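hey m, so remember when u said the tokens were messed up on ur end? i reran from scratch. heres the input so u can diff it against urs
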Amino acid sequence: MNDKISRRNARKSGATLVDFVLVHGTWGGGWQWRPVAERLRARGHRVFTPTLTGLGERAHLVSRDTGLDTHVADIVNVIAWEDLTRVALVGTSYGGLVISGVADRMPERIASLIYLDAALPEHGKCMLDLVPPERRATVERLARQDGDGYLVPTSLVLDTGIADDDERRAYLARMTPHPLRALLQPVTLQGRYLEVPDKAYVLASLKPTHHFAELHAWAGSQPGWSARKIPSNHFPMTTMPDATADLLMELDAVSRPPSRLRPGDCRRRPGAHPQRRAELPRRGQRRPWHWPHGRKLRHRREHRAQRPRQKLGAVLGQRQRPLPVDDLDRRSAELRRVDLLPRNVTRCEDDRARAVGRGCPGHAATGPGAPATATTMNLRRNTRRAAT
């Protein structure tokens, strides 16, 4: 509920929000992004932290066929099924290859690509091609010894930067073995990911690993790229969630279109014309035109109550139209049956009393026997006068 309120307030202020999709790296899971996701949601953003197949809470789905293409399909399906059209796609470590493959498939949905201490892709190369040779040899050896030949154990996790021993042990206990095929499968790119308008590389500068420092320098010299640093270890989303969330929103602001609202318009209802604001009812004031018993219907009922009652048919609960002369006998019999007309009234007097209001040429409309209205009381009074 608080996320919806924050998002509504952000929209009222004129901010154009993107949806963040945060992709974890090797041995991790979506749970690593929780501190950052909470801070982004508090600012009104929608945030998705999917876990890749075979890792985290989806570790039971791992197989020998789980590869890089599987993980790319995981994120593509999240964006497609959630119907996200303007995404800030963030990847860390191995997640850099994943988000590159996703953006290469659907660049029209990606507003910005952010590599958070992550690997940059090269067509035809895998993740282990981008690390030092001795690191690759260690990964393959441990996978054969401790991972049944297709899983990389968590003993190779880099320095987390968590100072507290208990927290660090609990953090490492949640790590899961990574499928080896995902690290050996080359990434296939068509170059469409470069169509994304804004791309950024963020280096964790406290202890740079692999070739990430070189990638940061390369990104700073390329058009359409921006290079930033964050003073943390390889897991800034865990050790520095506030700074990471602020940096992601700052990078998102670069690709955000300018707001169309003018200064001082933040209190105006979105879509409302500024000159019509005074015409809107205040809080607690009724809007009669929105209610079924509003002004128009109420005035119509008052007007109807002021009109004279209908002619003789109103006595029987019906609306009365002008009666033809041939129906006068039948209606007279109905009135006598309910004792509303004296029995000794002749047909001529009955006809004259009924037809005088219509100006019937066969009966005179003069004298005391000519009723002014056709109500039952007037008819009874006039017929008595005619009889006497």
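this time it looks ok to me. The longest helix spans residues 241-255. if urs says something different then somethings off w ur setup not the seq
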